Amino acid sequence: MHYIIGIDGGGTKTQCVITNPDGEALFECKGDASNFIIFGTEKVSETIFNLVDRCRGELNISFSDIKAIVLGTAGAGRAADAERMVKAFTDYSLSKNITFNLFHVESDARIALEGACSGQPGSILISGTGSIIFGKDEEGNIHRAGGFGRQIGDEGSGYSVGRKGLAAVSKQFDGRGNHTLISKLLNDKFLIDSSEKLINEVYKNKFDIASAAPYVIEAAELGDAEALKIIEVETNELFLHIAAMKKKLKLPEFQIVFIGGLISRDNIYSKTLKRKLILRMPDVKVKEPDYSPAMGAVLLGKKLLSNL
Asked: Residues with Cβ < 8 Å from 197, sequence gap 6 or more?
């Protein structure tokens, strides 16, 4: 019997699953962060190898029984970066006299898409710190929209929502805008109660702009008018992401999975977006993910093996 390992490499932790050839999960484990853009390819190679070794030991198999390892991680969307990670892991494994039949690196979004839709046509909308939408058409082609970063994009993201929340607070402090509950919530959490403190936090202390987003959402849920305006504008932006992807995929039935802290939770932000879809695009169906990103990596591994 041969085995497939799927790995979801995050910025804080790494999820790993090993399956049989049919994709049945046999063992799962966690490891350190594995974003190689941040932590470097050598450190991440060590983390990945240790996870693979744990799987091998748990199942009492040899390294040669593992026919495919697929890592999905941030920073791997560019082919040159993915190849750099492949070379680093291959070299690290060779230093231990181990060679693997197949080691493949993909973006974290790609394995999330594969897992969410069981490898079938469909789409995922990601709204966390940033925002992007990915989709797969009936020919297996991958499409994307958004993902241009905070300087010129990331509409509907935590960064965008948080930035507008902080702007509303700045206007209240100045008397240029209306009173907003966002101010009280941010003060309760971050002790920001004046223009000077807000400026210092943002420009001197490198305040995490996206961390303000949950308080904008909380204020909106409490009926705050300024927060509700932000929710309206930002969900319109995410709606445009979905509309663009729908045109690209041309699917008879368009299914989408919401991923990321802002829209995967049952809050006013996700509810507002879903309500707009029901009213304006009733043929778009929001669903829960079928499988985890790590299992999505396994599905990609199965496909790669079948093409060898």
From this structure: 191
